[in-house]
Design brief:
- With 224 residues, the protein is an alpha/beta fold.
- The protein is built from four helices and six strands; from the N terminus they run βαβαβαβαββ.
- β5 and β6 form a beta hairpin.
- α1 runs parallel beside α2.
């Protein structure tokens, strides 16, 4: 019987973002002190698993999230631009109470189609690149396990696609908290199941669990 392969899609840890902006693909956003603790927790939790292959998006916060696990497993980290954050026309804007970019009339022209979505990279395009990267990680870890560090929206949209669910969703209800693991189980190249866990769940402030992006160090009024 073909042995099982598991690819874990790991969301990065909390980001130091005191201005509470949607940082997207911008450079210069690193893990906060709490985010580094989250990354250490993940390493402590899964270091004894049969992990042989590590992948991250090119952004700092994902590379910093995988660093503790890479150190304890003694593995090289491979950067893959296919698992990067989605593009978004609202990058650089804030979404806190009373400050939301969505209140601006100039933003409304970007909101006409939530199914695509009209404000950013098409969901189907996100799924296509993420699925390719997922299958390549599976092949590289055949019979073992791989960890791919990505971002909330790409991970969640990929999960919706794998489970045959529609893309339209409430961003506050994504089951993809900071440093969570969305684990895809394979027999050969066939997906057999999907599981979810939150190794650092107890470290996440309650108010941040449903946030669509991380704003570590931001005052309450600037948090999404």
């Amino acid at each position: 019987m073909t042995s099982e392969t598991i690819v874990h899609l790991l969301r990065h840890g909390e980001v130091h973002n005191p201005d509470g902006i949607l940082y997207g693909r911008r450079d210069g956003f690193h893990l906060s002190d709490l985010g580094r603790r989250m990354a250490e927790r993940v390493a402590d939790t899964i270091a004894d698993r049969d992990i042989v292959h590590l992948v991250t998006s090119p952004l700092d916060r994902t590379r910093e999230t995988i660093a503790p696990l890479a150190a304890v497993r003694g593995l090289e980290v491979h950067a893959d631009p296919r698992v990067i954050e989605s593009t978004n026309v609202f990058e650089g804007e804030t979404f806190g109470a009373g400050r939301s970019a969505l209140r601006k009339p100039s933003a409304w022209r970007h909101l006409w189609n939530p199914f695509r979505p009209s404000w950013g990279e098409p969901y189907k395009q996100v799924v296509a690149r993420m699925t390719e990267a997922l299958q390549d990680a599976r092949a590289a870890a055949e019979g073992h396990e791989a960890v791919v560090v990505s971002h909330q929206l790409p991970i969640w949209i990929t999960r919706l696609s794998l489970e045959g669910r529609p893309f339209l969703h409430d961003p506050r209800k994504r089951q993809c908290t900071l440093c969570s693991l969305t684990s895809i189980h394979f027999r050969g190249d066939r997906i057999t199941s999907l599981t979810y866990s939150e190794p650092a769940g107890d470290l996440i402030p309650v108010g941040d669990k449903g946030a669509p992006f991380s704003a570590g160090g931001a005052p309450e009024e600037r948090r999404p």
